[in-house]
Amino acid sequence: MIEVKLDGWRAGLNKVALTKALQSHAALSLGDAKRSTDDLLAGKSVNVSVPDEQTAEQLIASAKAIGASAAILAPSTIRHVG
């Protein structure tokens, strides 16, 4: 899974289009997509998981066209203990 971070928006953001993009690309339910959009508009950063890099790039392109700022998060280092 790839993490995409939405961390800002500009005036004129299309709230409905962003909600639909989150539903489509991140496979979020309508309620989760709407909450994520509302959180972004309230000034919070929103992280969503997508299945692959191509989908992440599509979400980022859609988000930017709609008026949101988005980027792929660098994968964290995972350490296994055991």
Plain-language structure description:
The protein has one domain (2-72): Ribosomal Protein L30, Chain: A (2-Layer Sandwich). The chain contains three helices and three strands, in the order E-H-H-E-H-E. The protein has helices at residues 15-26, 30-41, 53-66, and strands at residues 2-9, 46-50, 68-72. The protein has a three-stranded antiparallel beta sheet with strand order 2-1-3, with helices on one face. Helix 1 (15-26) packs across helix 2. It is globular, with a radius of gyration of 13 Å.
Question: Gist?
Answer:
By secondary structure, this protein is of the alpha+beta class. Helix content is 46%, strand content 22%. The protein contains three helices and three strands, in the order βααβαβ.
Can you give the helix content as a percent range?
40-55%
Rg, rounded, reads 13 Å
CATH T-level topology: Ribosomal Protein L30, Chain: A
Largest sheet: 3 strands, antiparallel
Q: How many distinct domains?
A: 1
Helical segment count: 3
Q: In total, how many beta strands?
A: 3
Structural class by sheet pairing and helices:
alpha+beta
CATH architecture: 2-Layer Sandwich
Mean pLDDT: 91
* Share of β-strand residues: 15-25%
Which descriptors apply to this entry?
3 strands, alpha+beta, Ribosomal Protein L30, Chain: A, three-stranded antiparallel sheet, 82 residues, 3 helices
Chain-wise SSE layout:
Blueprint: E1 2-9, H1 15-26, H2 30-41, E2 46-50, H3 53-66, E3 68-72
Antiparallel strand pairs: 1-2, 1-3
Helix pairs in contact: 1-2, 1-3
